[in-house]
Amino acid sequence: MKVVTETLGYQTTPETDVLNITDDVASVVERSGLACGLVLVFVPGSTASVTTIEFESGAVRDLKRAIERLAPKGPAYEHDRRWGDMNGYAHVRAALLGPSVTVPISDGKLMLGTWQQIVLCDFDNRSRRRQVLVQAVGE
Amino acid sequence: MKVVTETLGYQTTPETDVLNITDDVASVVERSGLACGLVLVFVPGSTASVTTIEFESGAVRDLKRAIERLAPKGPAYEHDRRWGDMNGYAHVRAALLGPSVTVPISDGKLMLGTWQQIVLCDFDNRSRRRQVLVQAVGE
Amino acid sequence: MKVVTETLGYQTTPETDVLNITDDVASVVERSGLACGLVLVFVPGSTASVTTIEFESGAVRDLKRAIERLAPKGPAYEHDRRWGDMNGYAHVRAALLGPSVTVPISDGKLMLGTWQQIVLCDFDNRSRRRQVLVQAVGE
Fold first, then answer.
1. Domain ranges, residue B11
2. Distance CA B7, CA B40 (A)
3. Domain count, chain C
4. What is the pTM of this model?
5. Which of B66, B103, B137 sits opposite C92 (nearest CB)?
6. pLDDT digits (tens, 9 = 90+) for B34-49
7. Complex ipTM, two decimals?
């Protein structure tokens, strides 16, 4: 059993940028040499999330619209009144969706569905340089 | 330390079928012989999720209603306009709820609450044969 | 590789109490002596969740408001009609947000963002004594 951790870097655009990071995560798993185990994909920070979706532009736009209903952009956030960041909506979205996804590894491969991709969702209202931690645990 | 993986199979019905899979997950943990560690319960695919709830018909119906508000069934999805699948709502629901749950194992048992069950939620608009990966890591 | 499990205890107040439990989780990781791996923070029970957020009172109030929209408190829950608990909304909230968060450990430290804290959210309509399981896996 061993633990292998790598950090991936992404430049994001403002307001719910959804990036397909599946191939990068698969590469970490491949480099780890692990045959079976699990991989944790975690974004440090309080205005971004990681989840899975079929990564095609229609479904991604549908997701963005649902997230906008969940925590609409706007001036009615206490966080913004206190700190003036104007990204209160981004904090709420990130807390609701959560910072990570965990995927099983078998035969050295991510056990995702054919149409299921791992995505980084950046909700912040400005361009960010994001780090995503990919940690594989197994043997 | 070791990793034990099993695949469970379920036949689901269309439109937010919620199945209690707790006993099946507990059986995998028992067969694994692990005393302590964690178990990842993961559904491959982009129109299903795994979470926990008190599995009684009232709470399950309440959950379905909340999910319907979150991403209502309907014709207004870009995914449907592009691909004609008419399951755009299912993709959004799955991305919001996430594909997995992870539960600690102690003394060879799932550390769930008394009224807390592991459920597979299938949001798709047709009957599906689902596979759920159960992966226990521990010693 | 080893597994270290500890149970934390919290007294909560009714109706979406949000507690910052980051320091307690960090202490478990420190006591475990693990340099790298991951830590699963899991709440047994079907009316509470664990997630991450910037723990400042504005963002916490914003989160509570979004959760109230997601599953409003009220008499329209089937769970309440059947069991009279009047906490149907709490079951739905817990199922939507999920019972756990998993955080990577590196150099013996939680790899959280600077403004990202681990929070226990108790949605129940009465004061509860909650247990939170903290399980570190690594080496």
1. 2-138
2. 12
3. 1
4. 0.98
5. B66
6. 999 999 999 999 999 9
7. 0.97
